[in-house]
Amino acid sequence: MTEREFDLIRRLAPFLAQDGDGLIVGHGDDAAVVEVGGRGVCIAVDVLVEGVHFRRDLSSLGDVGWKAVAVNVSDIAAMGAAPTVAVVGLCRPSDVPAADVEALYAGMDEACRRWGLRLVGGDTVAADALALSVTVLGDVDVARAVRRSGASPGERLLVVGTLGGPAAALAQDRKGLQPDELLLALHRRPEAHVEAGGRLAELGATAMIDVSDGLGADLGHVCAASDVSATVHADALPVADGVVAAAIALGRDPLDFVCGGGDDYALLAAVPGDRAQAIAADVGGMVVGEVGQGPPATRLLLADGSTRDLAGLGWDHYRPEPA
Amino acid sequence: MTEREFDLIRRLAPFLAQDGDGLIVGHGDDAAVVEVGGRGVCIAVDVLVEGVHFRRDLSSLGDVGWKAVAVNVSDIAAMGAAPTVAVVGLCRPSDVPAADVEALYAGMDEACRRWGLRLVGGDTVAADALALSVTVLGDVDVARAVRRSGASPGERLLVVGTLGGPAAALAQDRKGLQPDELLLALHRRPEAHVEAGGRLAELGATAMIDVSDGLGADLGHVCAASDVSATVHADALPVADGVVAAAIALGRDPLDFVCGGGDDYALLAAVPGDRAQAIAADVGGMVVGEVGQGPPATRLLLADGSTRDLAGLGWDHYRPEPA
Fold first, then answer.
1. A204-218 pLDDT tens trace
2. What is the pLDDT of residues A261-317, one digit of tens each?
3. What pLDDT band is residue A2 in, cutting at 50, 70 and 90?
4. pLDDT band at B121 (very low <50, low <70, confident <90, very high)
5. Domain-located, residue A238
6. Number of domains chain A is built from
């Protein structure tokens, strides 16, 4: 997180509701959770903007619609919740004809069908830039909502999904290469791990987050919220197929993509140490490291026994801004 | 509604959930309603874009934040529901410094305090245009959610709030005049009629909508959804203070602002004819007309006994778009 991002978050904090007073989970987790009739209603919002989060030469508008739903469903999954409904606020430039808006909605519809939620409302307005703000609601047992803050020393870290694919595809593109189709597909249409998220909550995950900013940054969020440190084993990470080959061809360290790339929408969870392997097998995940005593710190342990600081890796959502 | 808007709505309809199957109210009303633990959860989304819905020379960013919450709270009120929480997706251009984002959030916070809801999450992303997509949730007794479609012949029409103020202010501005402060205030910081909406639901309102597109257009939506016609008495309409004087000075018909202006966020409801005056007194509203047999049609009855077609009046959210 940059100094400027931190400053903004500090300025806005007084206006955002924290936990308590009917709010089960306030601002600052993957999704907020409020209680309604004894159930937990999760609320996640994510905005995708053309040129910042997607490009129309790399993604179809169907892909963009899919992704706008998927990234929010991933936040819902990271609470251990099941997505239920979505609404969309769409900023539509004049160069986007009705057929393209239809394609975008068709992509949202595909994603909604994939994860069993329904699109129940939308507001489309004229604007100069193409942007979608999708809000997804989810349903969770109040006692089972998994936050970022529950990890304890002695627990193990587990990842469901793969890492590094989208970052490798975009690195190929930045070098003027045609991105590998397999890697590009992960950028275009990420999977959200809804079933695994719900199962992890059932099986006693103590903390969970979805990997959107990069493993290093998101593990850092868990460590900060839980006041713990964490060690990740480089050789245990679920690297997306093709990432290592792409990195070698680009003369890059694959770990930059795997730990610092972002856009992965894998789930990262802390689970009890004695049941970690069984839980990983159950949800189709990998045990990738351990939780240690605080203060918050994230460490990557390499195969040769050396370590690397994971902090500072991770994608910064902000383009440079003026003072 | 223009031909092009109608075409877009027709194209998107297959992707938007309709009523039934756990959905109490689907797409196409002021807000969707889903059932959670026996309660109705209302969901409304509205996007405000700079240059389309607000201008920074007419509104402060605090005003913009207030309005982004208010217009959604108004949708929730029009279902007879009480607003509970909000989330915001913010597109932030590089010329908006952190202090301005803070002012925008402070305005949202003021509106949230005004109507007893809480801001529980936000996503701020870099973009070329300033836009806010706010989603507000509301709580309603499942049996009491008031739709647009329940009006019947013989009922009376009731308006809570005033009409014409924002349109008159913008008409003054377009003529190069300094808008009246009182009128401009209605554009900058609209009121949402939450208490009246809830009370109307309790007292048996059969149909309700918030007047955002203009009385003519929004009454048309109620008539279309309910398959009824409606007659409104021009001399019964609650015209905002200053509108008539502004219209005369501009050489305009005040009814253009009152019936076709939009941005009013008054509530328009159909109520049983025999209790209409009592209900109006209870909620601080005005009885403005009657519901008649279908087919859908809207008629404005003038003091001299002549009538005018209300259809076609109303603000079109769209700027001209290319083919």
1. 999 999 999 999 999
2. 889 999 999 999 999 999 999 999 999 999 999 999 999 999 999 998 887 654 443
3. low
4. very high
5. yes
6. 2
Do B84 and A120 make contact, defined as CB atoms within 8 angstroms? no
The pLDDT tens digits of the residues spanning A56-68 come to 999 999 999 999 9
Tokens standing for residue A180: 């590998």
Sequence-ordered alpha helix ranges (H) in A13-78? 61-77
Answer whether residue A18 shows pLDDT above 90: no
Tell me whether residue B321 is in a domain.
Answer: no
Helix (H) or strand (E) run with residue B245 in it: helix B243-250
- Per DSSP, the residues of B136-196 read EEEEEEGGG---SS---TT-EEEEES-BSHHHHHHHHHHTTPPPPHHHHHHHHS----HHH
B residues 207..266 contacting A (CB < 8 A): none
Q: Shortest CA distance to A188 belongs to which of A44, A55, A52, A86?
A: A55
Contact by Cβ (8 Å): A153, A228? yes
Judgement on whether residues A134 and A178 belong to the same structural domain of the protein: no
Q: What is the CATH number of the domain that holds B266?
A: 3.90.650.10
Average pLDDT over residues B285-289: 98
Residue of chain A nearest B322, judged by CA positions: A94
Domain containing residue B27: CATH number: 3.30.1330.10
Domain assignment present for residue A100? The answer is yes
Same domain, B59 and B188: no
Sheet strands side by side (includes B286-293): B207-211, B266-271, B156-160, B286-293, B228-233, B297-301, B307-309
* Best residue of B11, B45, B50, B72 to probe chain A, by most A CBs closer than 10 Å: B45
**What is the structure's pLDDT at A318?**
33
In the listed set B102, B128, B143, which residue is the last one of a domain according to the structure?
B143
What is the rounded distance in angstroms from the CA atom of residue A230 to the CA atom of residue A210? Answer: 16
pLDDT in tens, A239-274: 999 999 999 999 999 999 999 988 999 999 999 999
Q: Among A143, A165, A192, which residue terminates a domain?
A: A143
User: Are B47 and A133 within 8 A, CB to CB?
Assistant: yes
Report yes or no: B32 at the A interface, CB cutoff 8 Å. Answer: yes
Q: Does residue A79 form part of some domain?
A: yes
> Looking at the predicted complex, does its ipTM rise above 0.95?
no
Tokens 């009376």 sit at which residue? B156
Q: Which residue of A has its CA nearest to B8?
A: A98
At residue B317, the pLDDT reads: 37
Q: Which residues 119-138 of chain B have a CB within 8 Å of chain A?
A: 119-129, 131, 133-135, 137
A276 and A158, same domain (yes or no) = yes
Residues A127, A130, A133, A136: is their CA dihedral positive or negative? positive
The whole-chain average pLDDT of chain A stands at 93
Q: Answer whether B27 sits within 8 Å of A120, measured CB to CB.
A: yes
- Closest residue to B39, CB basis, from A36, A101, A131: A36
Does B211 share its domain with B305? yes
What is the overall mean pLDDT for chain B? Answer: 93
Say yes or no: B209 and B268 in one domain.
yes
Q: Domain range for residue B273?
A: 146-309
Find out whether B217 and B262 touch, Cβ atoms under 8 Å. Answer: yes
- Per-residue pLDDT, averaged over B180-204, amounts to 98
Say whether residue A309 is in contact with chain B using an 8 A CB cutoff.
Answer: no
Q: Are residues B49 and B68 in the same domain?
A: yes
Do A285 and A157 share a domain, yes or no? yes
> Is there a single domain that holds both residue A161 and residue A126?
no
B175-178: Cβ within 8 A, 24+ apart: B175/B250
- Give the nearest chain B residue to A317 (CA atoms): B125
